[in-house]
Design goal:
The complex is a heterodimer. By secondary structure, chain A is an alpha+beta fold. Chain A has four helices and eleven strands. Chain B has two domains: 235 residues, Up-down Bundle (Cytochrome Bc1 Complex, Chain C), CATH 1.20.810; 264 residues, no CATH class. In chain B, 59% of the residues lie in helices and 1% in strands. Chain B has 28 helices and four strands. In chain B, the strands form two sheets. Chain B has a two-stranded antiparallel ribbon with strand order 1-2. Chain B has a two-stranded antiparallel ribbon with strand order 3-4. In chain B, a hairpin with a 2-residue loop joins strand 3 and strand 4. Classes of the chains: A alpha+beta, B mainly alpha. The complex binds FE2/S2 (inorganic) cluster.
Chain lengths: 204, 670
């Protein structure tokens, strides 16, 4: 900032002896600061867009989902046998990504299972540890993540100390024509991702 | 000339600058141990040149990143070399940086008055790691995508601000276009600028106090130019040679395009981060939380390294010894953990299977991208989603492999296991479905061909009920009309050998295997290597329909029972069925689709059927199409190395379990 100051220039530009030098220095410093700060502020705010936008409530969430955030699955309740092995299902919905909307693309995958007593449970297949994907192991009859060996029982509970929390369960609704109905033939899931690596399950 | 140089020097003072740059004192003589800094500057220069060139062809977005990298790697002039050099020089930089750091610590070059420069070096280290991290994602392939996911998830474990940091890095809550544009801006713009700035400072400050000389009397004092430069140049040349050789003979990998909905079990970070990865494997570490293992511990290690000058300041030479011990211990720890990770992965069968699948997908993606249709605007990821060769095995593994196998495995190269080991199939192995071998085996060895189903519980139950005198309708391969027919000696006699070959060819022709391009011109131009021999087929047709057999079989023909054989497939209603499995276009795509949806209809196995019908709710139409096209080889022919045939392993375990009673049998006995 205080490089070579050509003396002739500065004296000719400033009206001599009007302002005391202290004020001129202050002014020059303030102006220089402003010249740096304005572009930096604009750039900085632009860069912070993802956070600013999120608190405004926008973001990357998929579009057309009736039943408020729920997505209809291809699979139907009668495909799930009581106490049977978990069934993987792909969640297909519209995906908004920056300037694009992708119609009906896979946005994630989930594990479904019908528990004893007939209740259907669903889990996000993303590992709560650091986000790899969880597999079902037929041999061990459990859920397992190949990245750092997190494992879970079939109800999603942790069976070793690696994962910070249980598998992320998802709300699932049996419905007819998009309206909740315990005897319906449609399965709707509220597909959400959760923050990884933390003991508490926090949607992102 | 001299006048020109003088003129220029008068205006710029470059002579003095050059002198200052080149004639730095090197007390104790030029030495090999001083070369590391120069090699780093050299590799950085390599990165700048190749990086700018890659930039000129790279396009960051989720539908163009993989595609443009593919184009660079496989189509542009010397693209593989430019990308390869960039890829391996990046790794070289990390290695050289580690050597440089160890060198500095051992020689005590971090001690006062050079501590500030040491810290500048630490900053540079972080920038380089940042460059390698951001660069890993840019090709947007499965490997980079999933490995980087883990890293950004680790970021989110940072106390307090983690969430925000992650969102900022990703450009949103999830990965998308903006993740790429931001990573690219960091990788090609912000971080290199910072690197240049800090490097300039680093070199400037370094020159102020000069080299850290261990032994002034090692050799007579010399200057940087030419003695040290010569040594530096030799080592840089070696680095360049190694990088080029790796780029040419190993090549930078490009795995399949990133697909968030496709699991990628082979995810691993770059090899120089494997130690951290392995560290995060320890259950005890995880027990203390992700933040502890992935942030606090590495943070403490970096902290200790940063504190080294102070440790020396307060503890004197003992501190220096401590520092050296720390750096050696750290190095040893890294080597041990990395080796552990590599060995464990090598022995982990499921990781190997995941790797094999990753390679298959990657090779297939590149093959399709180079195919006649090239890459559609919706991206290479759609190429794979619509490719039977890629999706078929997955669908098979998901829906069919509970009973069937494919060349002994589950379709994806993995043996199906249960609690007792390798699980035996309870239905036919479909690896050679509709091939000539398949057709021949159905005709001449019906009982053997369908013998796997004897492992099924339903079969054993039925047999028990039958021996108890009950009337049961079930499919017993040993005791079927077909088996009886095939048992006749004359079928296997030389008189009928030609007839049999022709019949097999005819059946094979009916299955109509091979690629059927959608585009009509393409279809006409396509020379199907799986096409049947038409002369033989015509003879076979006569054998099948008119029954031109010799010997005892004379007068019998296939259409006696399978009345629609040779006709187009029609899904006849139950009342119109002939009571035998429909063989019209047996094994072809139309037949197979109808069969999978309705195996229990009278036109297929009727009452004897045991296979579940697959409704569109279980297997969507598009999925059925992909599965069937894979089984009938209707996809762009592939040279990609496919999964090994593992039938031998299966037969072996069938053999061992036969002695102890197969799984099904023991279940039936209870
Ligand atoms: S990401 Fe699943 S175990 Fe680490």
């Amino acid at each position: 900032m205080s490089d070579a100051e050509p003396p002739e220039l500065s004296t000719s530009a400033d009206p001599p002896a009007v302002d005391p030098p202290g004020r001129r220095e202050l002014l020059a410093a303030a102006l220089s600061f402003l010249l740096g700060a304005v572009p930096a502020a604009i750039g900085g705010l632009f860069f912070l867009d993802p956070i600013l936008r999120r608190s405004k409530g926008g973001g990357n969430d998929g579009g057309d989902q009736t039943m408020d955030g729920f997505v209809k699955l291809d699979i139907t309740p009668d495909n799930l046998v009581e106490e049977g092995p978990p069934v993987a299902s792909t969640v297909i919905a519209d995906l908004d990504d920056a300037w694009n909307r992708f119609k009906d693309v896979p946005i994630g995958s989930i594990w479904l299972r019908r528990q004893q007593g007939g209740e259907i449970i669903a889990f996000n297949s993303i590992c709560p540890h650091l986000g790899c994907s969880i597999n079902f192991r037929r041999g061990e009859n459990d859920f397992h993540c190949p990245c750092h060996a997190s494992s879970f029982d079939l109800d999603g509970g942790t069976t070793n100390d690696t994962p910070p929390r249980d598998m992320d369960s998802l709300e699932i609704v049996v419905a007819t024509d998009g309206r909740p109905d315990p005897n319906g033939t449609e399965l709707w899931v509220k597909y959400q991702n959760f923050r990884r690596g933390t003991p508490e399950k926090k949607p992102i | 000339m001299k006048a020109l140089i003088d003129w220029f020097d008068h205006r710029t003072g470059f002579k003095e600058l050059m002198h200052e740059a080149l004639y730095e004192r090197v007390p104790g003589g030029a030495r090999w141990r001083y070369v590391w800094g120069s090699t780093l500057v050299f590799t950085f220069m390599l990165q700048v040149i190749t990086g700018f060139m890659l930039w000129s062809a790279y396009s960051p977005s989720t539908r163009t990143a993989w595609e443009s990298v593919y184009h660079i790697q496989h189509e542009l002039t010397l693209g593989y070399l430019v990308r390869g050099v960039h890829h391996f020089a990046a790794q070289a930089m990390v290695v050289l940086m580690a050597i440089h750091l160890v060198q500095v610590v051992i020689d005590g070059a971090y001690k006062a008055p050079r501590e500030l420069n040491f810290w500048l070096g630490i900053v540079l280290l972080q920038i380089v790691l940042g460059l390698s991290l951001t660069g890993y994602l840019l090709p947007w392939d499965q490997k980079g995508y999933y490995a980087t996911q883990v890293t950004t998830n680790i970021m989110s474990a940072t106390p307090v601000v983690g969430d925000q940091v992650q969102t900022l890095a990703q450009g949103g809550t999830e990965y998308g276009h903006l993740t790429l544009t931001r990573f690219f801006a960091m990788h090609a713009g912000i971080l290199p600028t910072l690197l240049v700035a800090f490097l300039a400072l680093h070199i400037y400050v370094f020159r102020r106090h000069g080299l850290t000389v261990r032994d002034e009397n090692h050799a007579p004092e010399t200057t940087f130019w030419p003695d040290q430069v010569l040594k530096d140049a030799v080592v840089c040349l070696i680095v360049l040679a190694v990088v080029m050789l790796l780029a040419i003979f190993k090549g930078a990998e490009l795995s399949a395009p990133a697909d968030p909905s496709v699991k990628f079990d082979a995810a691993r970070p770059e090899w120089y981060f494997l130690f951290l990865f392995r560290f995060l494997h320890f259950e005890v570490i995880n027990k203390m939380g992700v933040t502890f293992g992935a942030i606090i511990v590495p943070g403490i290690i970096m902290g200790v390294i940063t504190m080294m000058p102070l440790i020396h300041k307060f503890l004197g030479e003992f501190g220096h010894t401590l520092n050296k011990a720390f750096i050696w211990l750290l190095g040893a720890g890294i080597v041990v953990l990395t080796t552990m990770a590599i060995i464990e992965d090598r022995e982990d069968e499921s990781h190997q299977a995941a790797l094999a699948e990753a390679h298959r997908d990657g090779a297939r993606a590149r093959e399709l991208a180079a195919g006649p249709d090239r890459i559609p605007v919706d991206g290479a990821v759609e190429l794979l989603r619509r490719d039977p060769f890629t999706q078929g095995p997955r669908l098979f593994a998901k829906h069919c492999s509970a009973c069937h196998r494919y060349n002994g495995h589950d379709g994806r190269g993995t043996m199906v296991v249960d609690k007792t080991g390798i699980a035996l199939p309870t239905a036919a192995d479909l690896g050679n479905f509709s091939s000539r071998d398949w057709m021949r085996s159905v005709v001449v060895d019906y009982a053997g061909h369908f013998s796997w189903q004897k492992n099924a519980v339903w079969f054993q139950d039925a047999q028990k009920a039958e021996s108890a005198g009950e009337e049961v309708i079930y499919l017993n391969p040993d005791d079927s009309e077909m088996a009886t027919w095939a048992d006749v000696d004359s079928l296997h006699s030389t008189d009928n050998a030609e007839n049999l070959t022709a019949l097999v060819e005819f059946l094979y022709a009916e299955a109509d295997l091979g690629y059927k391009p959608l585009d009509e011109d393409e279809r006409e131009a396509f020379n199907n290597p799986l096409a049947a021999n038409s002369t033989l087929t015509d003879i076979g047709r006569v054998v099948a329909i008119e029954g031109a057999w010799a010997g005892d079989l004379e007068g019998t023909s296939c259409v006696d029972c399978h009345t629609s054989l040779g006709e187009d497939f029609v899904a006849v209603a139950d009342d119109d069925a002939d009571g035998y499995p429909t063989l019209a276009k047996y094994g072809s795509a139309v037949w197979l689709k109808d069969f999978i949806r309705n195996p229990g209809k009278a036109r297929h196995y009727g009452e004897k059927n045991q296979m579940p019908a697959y409704s569109p709710q279980q297997l969507r139409d598009d999925e059925l199409d992909l599965l069937v096209r894979w089984m009938t080889h209707d996809y762009l022919p592939s040279e990609v190395h496919d999964y090994e045939n593992r039938l031998a392993e299966l037969s072996e375990s069938q053999g061992t379990s036969a002695g102890t009673g197969s799984i099904g049998a023991s279940a039936a006995e209870e």
